[in-house]
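Pilot study result, target chain (182 residues):
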Amino acid sequence: MDLKEIMSVSGQSGLFRFVSQGRNGIIVESFLDKKRSFISASHKVSSLADIAIFTDGEEVPLLEVLKKIHESGPDVPAPDSKSSPDVLKKFMEKILPNYDRERVYVSDIKKLASWYNTLLELKLLNFEEEIVPETDVKPEEAAQAETKPEKKAKPSTTAKTKKTVAAKKTTAVKSSSDSGNR
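Predicted structure:
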């Protein structure tokens, strides 16, 4: 599951899949009705990968919260977003006991429950770790090698100088032979 491709758009219900970058916004596709629409740059659009939940300590990324919900009962939906505030708060306390009760509102918990249920219904919740084959190259070295562009070998400055001197000699020889024939 790649949360970077799943978007939440302010003022619109449901989740959207990122399709393409437009001139003054983005093109998204609704998970509910599969309709594509243009979202202008003036709308607030958030990738689910960029969302975190406030806690008493550090913020917890949404992916980690979704994993905790899934661990509490795989294939069990979260409470309905229309549930009472008390039910939603108890649900949040169960999955994230140290969530910040002053900064996480009931409306935020409703969104979280709704998003989880949508992702569960669409079978987009896959928390299995990717198995990466072992290689002799360390991950840091591989990342550096991928980001560095290949450098072309530059001729040495002495080679440039030799070419320039050879070109001048050839020109000088041609001009002296031309003057002798006249």
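One observation from the pilot: The domain at 52-121 is CATH 1.10.10.1650 (Arc Repressor Mutant, subunit A). A full batch analysis is planned for the follow-on phase.
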